[in-house]
């Protein structure tokens, strides 16, 4: 009833929006007039009803939120709605113009705009399809304007493959057709104003070919059909199942609060009451069939592209995600509904709209080159929107599973991809509860489908857990529009996309909580805001962001500290729409990644110019290696591309045993070299003329660079005075700050900071202690801190063939926010691969963006706090990182802890603000904001686990650990991380076979990645690893962004000798094949094949001995296998399809990352093949486990762990139960009197299985005391369970007194199984006691043995092995505070 | 402790902080060691026993300090780690408590001895000595040394 009412309100509300938009008034005002506004907002927000009824103080907050949302979204969407509906010129123009205005602000506006515009128009001119097109365009447009950095990605699709929306369309029906039904129902009840909704609904039936309209129509109806919340659950795999259950009117056990991004899972009653009225079977099914038909139709029309593999993985993600959006978030649809409605009118109008929408979106995307982004997206971890870009209309596995109506294209994949696991709404799974609820029927308990991300995966059985394509980032379970606004996972990622409510819950999950940041990532489109006042919270200084709530026109509430701030006058004016009074439409509030141009308040001094200093090693070793030639050449080539303005300055220092400076002052005829040989007290010979203006002295610089490689050819100097040279460099740079690039080729051996060789080559492969991972001296650290204080960063290029103590040298970059490059055994001619790598790295290094004098501050919602930072920087304050330089390739990791419980909030936000001086001398602030939901149950936490982020964070932590403690410790910690989390999961999911190793789908790659980490150079033992290599790998782990780090940890392996045109994607007019990912195991390699391994910074192309000659001829350009040279780093351009395919694939992979990797061709007899084979991490090596062995090892450890914790937990449970039993309440409200209330009481504490069982046992013992057996039993309980727990615990501990427990169990079982309702419970209770008696041993040595051990004792035959497994779940951890301590005490510290 | 609190709440630069703190660490430890030696000389076995754990801790702490060229314990690059900061703070509080308690214990011992040796009138002077260090806010245990000197 209540739900129906609220739906009515919603209708009213929607009408209100319509009125508002048509009258062209501020939607806000008209909003406020509705009395029903409050009610109608209920569904918007994550915790429907619960807030109001139960938590009064929270109601206010959510009210505010709702209000804000109500006023905000309709306002936002009303502009497009106007376009669409009325097509009034002025409106359209206005909106469009504003869009363009807005988009012209980004700095990168390049020439690609033409192209995309054209594309849009042309696509819009598909006459029939255009209807879809409009939506896609519209859709994209709206996603772009929301997260504009992504924007360009959505669009090109649009022009090229408009298939994207269709895919999503195909997905929607599964997810949300009940809403259509509801929409239909309520559509009839609409007033005249709400007519369009009905029209739209009709249209879905009518234009079956226009499948794209389906999603939108659904979208519209969702607000009406309030029960769409139901469907949120269904975005998990078996939708149909779920729906059918709901539709048939059985007790709606759907727990939708979970899905609505919500918090309060303890209010199932409300959800039920809302759902039931809407579930009308007839309508639902008919609607669904209609939708189904439309689903099928799009495929042929789209099929210009063959189904591609990645699309298989990507589209489901999209689907689920969309599903989530629709289900989880009603408000957005409510407000956005008007927009697409237009299509219900005649075709002409639609076409117009299409064009407009397309234009709009093209204009928004105009400034970016779309191609690059596409790559990004394909690369994995792309934006949700982008993913759809590359997907062709292949029904996803989820579709396959759920709706048989949709036809599969391409492959049906047996295992779902891990990526979209998290998109599904996590629903807690309490098997015990389910059974209770079914047996006790009538109690409305939570019951819902198990979400995909929690689907248990048996790791030891499922061998093919690797996805076919790259692993996408999980999408936070948020409302659709929050999700659209949310920061891209590429720049900002959290290890848990569902934040646990309390630290206790986090501890229970045994997963690390942290953020992985890539803040200065190259973005192709970024809204840049020039404003004299940057709106920030007055108390916590948070920048205004999309997740703040506007209380009214003039005030906003900070989402981090909850302070209410005033909206400044200037902010009321929106430069984008040129309108006044719409603060919520400002780009700051529409984008989670924005860049402000800061005013002088943000400067301590005038912005510094770009200053580059090169400190070059020119001793014999360096000259021999020949890096100078490469460097000078690259520098000459890129001199004009160095980021900077007219003030850019550059300087050079060289050093061997002395330090040489170069006077390049303008006016000199040739560069002057000044030699300072007093290295103990270094000074600058001519401080003014050593750093010179790049443009004024360009000729001199060029002269120097040309001469430099040959100047030292005959040097015999073998010493290296790096320390003094650095001191000189610091002195030179300290007035301005800037970047020092150090090139070093050997161990510094003179002056300050000299180092000694610490590595013992014989220890390289030892499995024992690895020493000297820390610095030998703090000279470099101090220098780095000094540099950091003077805004100077030191970048280190180490090109050494021998040990050069990177552990010490790296400090200079680590603490000054520089970067480290290491080229082991570098030689220009002997090691061409390294030489090429240096060349490519230098090109990137010299030309990439750079930010000077930067600081980064990370803020998070009150209650969370930052624990530890990882990366290259200096921590200046608890949340402030000082970065002398920031470069686009730097990644950071942050460990978080939950200090206060987050129960009052449903969302948490993280904000990173990076304040830097651009190379053009502008002070800019780049702000990223990430918003994540808060959950209260453990399974939700698991559902939201982002395995890649977790692994990267763990890698960072392990590096710290190995430096501060030891490598062995770090390795143990890594293994324990897997063991603990899986054990915790297995004890949560109680119905699992304990004899197997089971992981939630979201974490199924966890053991694999950890094994890969253990086999990394950084952490491996037993394999010969040079110390420098190891340290470098550690440095990489600390400073690489997630995407690159994952490649490093777990490379991608493709088979490329049989690339076909099937399953390709089209990027920029090129066909890029998409071979499936292979397992990193030698079993996948065949002698007949050729394999490409993508390790991030290097590609290995392995060619089997019997590889097809055609392939070798076409792709490699050699007649046969034998003639392929050993050192080959390039693929020739052969005019053959296979060559073309291979090259386009490789270049596609290359384009997806900033550092262009080197290709290395490896033959079987090549010595470099060990490099290749060491990456096959699933195989066994002499010193390390294979993947399967590793799993078994983990399983063993989990068993041990579980047994211990089981023992403790059981004690806790028994203790509680005993307390309950011995309570002698006479109060009427006492749960003893009322079994149902009692159960409820038990259920209130989530892990109530055991407690309830025991309570009911006690209850029934009392209630049926007439039976002699039971009276005996109760007597026994009374006798043996006094309130002092020692007497019950001591027999437990000793394992003695067997008869007592057996007797009890028998009595319980016999007597109590008479009651049908509780029979099952008592079976369990009895078995529990029995289990206790036989001390749980058999349970974990396999269920078979467990059951056999049980059977002789079991009083009835009704206890079968199944019940054993129940019990393991029953002992869910209850280690809470005092209880745990108490039991520990009782057990004598077990 | 105050310093660490400042570090945590305020925006004081950790480098400065460490620079001010590090020179103080070694004197503190030395003074404490000196005390222990004095107690040893005075054959105050109980007092010595109370102080030995702290001495051992100090030695251990100094042995396992990060790689540094100068004296001191605190490394500006790691001090901001929440773990280390919390640890340092806790350590500071514990030590403060210990020094305070031992101060009163020494005071008691002194008064006891004074009373026994009929030098009652010196008490006022002793009181003055006591209060000076507190007001200066110098490491608390500098004055027990004075007291012990009186003692002897």
Automatic annotation (TrEMBL), chain A:
Residues 851-935 form the Sec23/Sec24 beta-sandwich domain. Residues 286-306, 334-344, 359-369, 388-399 have a biased composition (Low complexity). Residues 101-121, 257-314, 329-405 are annotated as: Disordered. It comes from the Eukaryota. GO terms for molecular function: SNARE binding; zinc ion binding. Residues 607-846 form the Sec23/Sec24 trunk domain. This is Protein transport protein Sec24B. The lineage of its organism: Eukaryota, Metazoa, Chordata, Craniata, Vertebrata.
Automatic annotation (TrEMBL), chain B:
Belongs to the cornichon family. This is Protein cornichon 1. Keywords: Membrane, Transmembrane, Transmembrane helix. It comes from Lamprotornis superbus. InterPro entries: Cornichon, Cornichon_conserved. GO terms for cellular component: membrane. The chain crosses the membrane at residues 29-55, 96-115. It holds the Pfam family Cornichon. The keyword Lipid metabolism does not apply. It is found in: Membrane.
